[in-house]
Amino acid sequence: MVDKKIQAQIVTNAQKQIDNWEMFYSPRLRQIKKFEDMYALRVSLQLKNRFNIPLPILSGYIDTFKSKIDEFPNVEFNPQEEGDLKASRKVSALWDSEKGADRGQWAFVDRGAKTLAMFSGRATYKYFAESDPEYKSNFEVVDYYDFVFEPQGGADLEKHLFCGQINIFKTKSQIKRGVDSGLYQKDGMNSLILSVSNKESKENDRSMENKFNRLQSLGLDPNNNNFVGEGTFNLAEMYTTFDGKRYYLFFDRKSGAVLRIEELKEMFKSNEYPFVTWATHEDPFNFSSKSPCDDVYPVADSMVTLFNQALDNVQKRNWGMRGVDTSVVKNLNQLNWRPDGIIEFDGNKGNIKNALVELETPDNSGQVQNLVTFLDNYLGQKTGITPATQGQSDKDQKVGIFYGELQLVADRIDYISKMYREAHVKIGKKFVQGLQEHMGQPMAVKILGKDGAEWTEIKNEDLKEFDISISGGQSELQLNEIKTRKQAEALDRLLKAGTPVNKEWFAEMTLRQGDFDEEDIKRAMDLNSDGDDEILSEAAKAIQDIIQGKIPERNRGATVGFVNKILDYAEDNTFGNLKTESGQAKDNEIFSKLMEYANLHMPIAQQNAMRKAQQLLATQDIQGAIQGTGGANLPKRTDQPVVSSEGVQQKSAEISGKNNPLVG
């Protein structure tokens, strides 16, 4: 509980810190607003009879740039100790599950952060876990209009004395539920309701003006269409340092009403901010460094100006000005073009052809075209976003030149990707910390084991210290594409030269170059596997049912792979890995039921395998008859598993004898 005097001082400091940040960052936000307008093809008012047509130059550059870094990276949690290998696989599997499109949608959040980084030069994420009522991970993107930071804090956010987020809207009912659960202070809620007008719309104050302007760039009107149907409050969340300690503050920045305040280490044991950021153009002494738009905007603006001036030039030449001898032409209004128009003139005072003089406007279209082409090529040369990378390529361009350009672009993007990957290492660490603090009960995860995908449990003892590695992304994919092409050419030369090559290794390399995943490669290389995904999935489901104390039904489609999956799981995962509060006795019970269920299906697996073999022989006989050779002359299939009930039973006996403490 924070002392009221300290609380009042922290609130006063936080209000000043937000005001100070707004004054510091406002000029930068005005520049960013220009980027947003150009991206949205919004133009300002122009003089009468002047063209002001927008061109998608900046938007094309930004969209191409984003396409090169649009992939969410692969994050691997590697063990620091050899014995923690399986624990690291569990954490990696849980990460993959949490980030999925059907759960956290982390790739969607990541793409949003990258888009904001294109304009402002910095992407900001917010990650935290919670356990009320159960474990949940939260991964969010923070708008640059909302993210508060210390102006002179430098590039490393953890060295800032304060940071935070404004424009966090909460409804009255949400705040009341927070008070009921003990999360928010009741006196703070009462003070908030009394001091702040309770509107059923998102209030448009100064801090929201920029966000609304962004919508207006697309022709939308948020000012008059902000009704939500329930009383809302615009709140702020600040992480600030006072007397050498970090505090978390959730409050109304205008009235100072506090809903929640506590030391940060009470929320996060690491005492670190929940925000993670990365910059497109890193500057160690400036958190608000430049963005890709800063490079492109001046050139794009010049190209748009030149294009519109060329249109003005064409219009002037089409609708050019003329000099008129008014002593010859009676009515100047008759000079305006109209179908079958008649112009009166005094022939006694001169010829009308001589009375009209065209004031010629020079044709500058060639110069404009040359300038625009020069600027486009110059921009591509300096930024790496060339016509080829945007989809325009020379049909006669040699493959080697194309791959050379591709590698140059990948190298440029990879520089930014380094900062991006470092940020995701930090997110990975926060992910593990969140699990350690909030997971509580064990969670089921699906990992890739030696027999394919299998379900297991992740427990508190699995949450070790891990080394985190990052891979993937478009730049890496492009470099891998170049590497794969070189490898394929090398293998092709070996084969043409007749050089002996390990066939299994060659087959595995071919599958990897074909972009098959690890599980598919493993199953393809295993000649003893029946290769039936569905039946192996049913075996995994039966294992889970047994672990959970259920009795799975007998499976009439059981195969050798089905039985082996259960036997292997019993061998690898019981006795210590599945202990509950009842200890080893529970392990013995699970092991016995797994073995009993596997033995029950041995005769079924043998019958199904024999039936499959008979069908194969019949097929060969039919093919032989059609070819006129007879089935006996056809080569025998060698890629089918050889089934032996004695072999399966022997494996079962070996597992039972090795693992069951009651034997021997």
Tally of helical runs: 20
What's the rounded overall pLDDT mean? 79
- Percent of residues in beta strands? 5-15%
Report low-confidence residues grouped into runs of 5 or more. 394-408, 575-582, 629-643, 660-664
Shape: extended
Instruction: Tell me roughly what share of residues is in helical segments.
Output: 40-55%
- How is the biggest beta sheet arranged? 6 strands, antiparallel
Distance separating the two termini: 61 Å
DSSP summary, beta strand count: 15
Radius of gyration: 35 Å
Structural class by SSE content: alpha+beta
Structural description of this entry:
- β13 (443-449) and β14 (452-458) form a beta hairpin.
- It is extended and about 125 Å long.
- It is an alpha+beta fold and 664 residues long.
- Among the domains are: 4-48 and 97-289, no CATH class; 530-664, no CATH class.
- The protein has helices spanning 4-39, 57-68, 85-98, 106-120, 172-180, 186-195, 206-216, 264-267, 292-318, 352-355, 365-383, 399-438, 474-496, 503-513, 518-525, 533-547, 560-573, 584-600, 602-627, 645-659; strands spanning 74-79, 122-130, 136-141, 147-149, 162-171, 199-201, 227-242, 245-251, 258-263, 275-279, 321-324, 356-359, 443-449, 452-458, 466-471.
- α16 (533-547) runs parallel beside α17.
- The chain has 20 helices and 15 strands.
- Strands 4, 5, 6, 7, 8 and 9 form a six-stranded antiparallel sheet that branches.
